[in-house]
Amino acid sequence: MWSIAGVVSRHLEAARGFEVTFWRSAFNALALVVLLGWLRGPAALVATLRGGGRALWLSGACWSVMFTAFMMALTMTTVANVLVTMAVGPLLTALLARMLIGHRLAFRTWVAIAVGGVGIAYMYADQLNFNDMKQVTGMLVALFVPAAAAVNWTLSQRAQAHGQHVDLVPAVLIGAMISSLVTLPFAIPLQATTWDIGLLATLGLVQLAIPCSLAVVCARYLTAPEISLLALLEIIFGILLAWWGAGEVPAKSALLGGSLVIGALVFNEWLSLQERKQSQLNQLPLT
What three-state secondary structure class fits 149? Predict the structure, then answer.
């Protein structure tokens, strides 16, 4: 579901720039209001938003940056460039958690960060064309997505470590509301056709509201490495769908640089899973 944003956005007729972000975020917010109101009840939803505290609203602010930067980046550069740039999210999260909350990083994670950095640097160097700075600007905007995600997860972990529970689903709703309100003034005059609104409504529901809610539920049962590995499928499917459904052939630099980033992530998360399994086996009684 996450991976359809690129291919769907390539079939818009008139909506561009901030307007694309506004409609997607607005429909995401509407879908979450209906979904959460149905699952929890309107009174419980309002109570959560009122009593969520600073951690909830900071998380919502991070979601708003992610929603806005992602769609803006897609209007400026290729789907492959955006998705591969976003792939450094787990590595940025690990690095930020090390600096802010003192999480120790294994040597394999430092190696993954270095290899992933080489892959991103190669992509940027190859795309650096001063006659077409829009591509580079789009990739720089895309960097706000993993950066905001890293801040989001780190703040959530820090809040939970201090006994504050952060309900991430209402935080997604807050992020969608902020994103739509901030981008609305820049989206006027609205030029989206009925076709565009239908596509962006689909993105708001199918590409954001449903999978983000499912991800929060899955996080209760899956380990962090398992979730990170599953999230990498967005990059693979997203590039393939844009290639197949919109004729957007990824550049050689995106394929090579992306292979380095994804390979480093897969290797790091696979080793983490093996370490967890071994640790669980060592804790089993001998008899």
Answer: helix
CA triplet 108, 111, 114: central angle to 5 degrees? 155
**What is the tens place of the pLDDT at every residue in 115-140?**
877 777 777 676 565 556 777 888 88
Provide the token pair at 198. 């239908």
Where do runs of H (alpha helix) occur along 101-246?
Answer: 107-127, 133-161, 168-187, 194-202, 210-218, 224-246
pTM of the complete model beyond 0.70: yes
> In terms of Cα–Cα distance, which of 158, 175, 217, 194 is closest to 70?
175
Token representation of residue 75: 């209007």
HSE-CB of 61 using CA atoms within 13 angstroms: 9
* CA–CA gap between residue 119 and residue 98 (Å, rounded): 22
User: How far, rounded to the nearest angstrom, does the alpha carbon of residue 283 sit from its chain's CA centroid?
Assistant: 35
CA dihedral 243, 247, 253, 259 (to 10 degrees): 10
